[in-house]
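ok trying this again, last paste got cut off
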Amino acid sequence: RLAGRRVCKACGQPYHSKYSPPACENTCDKCQGEVYQRADDKEETVKKRLDVYHAQTKPLIDYYSKRGLYVEINGEQHIDKVFLDLCQSLASENP
């Protein structure tokens, strides 16, 4: 999902190449500015960031999982589904 992020240089309007692209490629729907991919959202950079994330977060995941306090939500889904799953998890007494 991160590698698909795009943003308008002029107004900062966010887009996603797969889930919410601009109507005209590389052109902002809001201000007609240039839509681009930030350097820190390129695939190789995202992979490195995720490697660090998993290495540093694994102990926390284990800690909360053992206590029944960890919920995993599939972030590869459409953003509306991710939001729905997150809201349902927060509303649930038993995650």
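PB: full thing came through this time. The helical segments are 43-66, 79-91.
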